What does this fold into?
Amino acid sequence: MRQIKFRAWDKKTKEYFHISELWNSGTNPECFNFDGWTDNFGDEGRLKDIVIEQFTGLTDVNGKDIYDGDIVRCKNEYQGTDYTGKVMFFNGGFCVWTGGFRNYVWEDMIPEIIGNVHENPKLLED
It folds into this structure.
């Protein structure tokens, strides 16, 4: 069974952190404490500066977890094509958006994470 995981990008500090650091109750890393939600994460709170990204359930060629927001270089040995794009959730599933099309056929892809949209946006310019 695959685990549902999230990561968070902090726009102010320009770094990733584990989502449990936002809501962790301190006693159990699997339990989240929502008591201070409106104070800490409402319109005036910290959440406006956080981008939450979900784990796709897949790993790249090097065994790294692939998240929404990652930039991947994909090889498709079946079709003989290579392309680079950002991982995103669209229309009910994760895909790789290249600016011109979306590829949902994960079984045929051999992805490698080469960056993410926050730290390496220039990788998508080519």
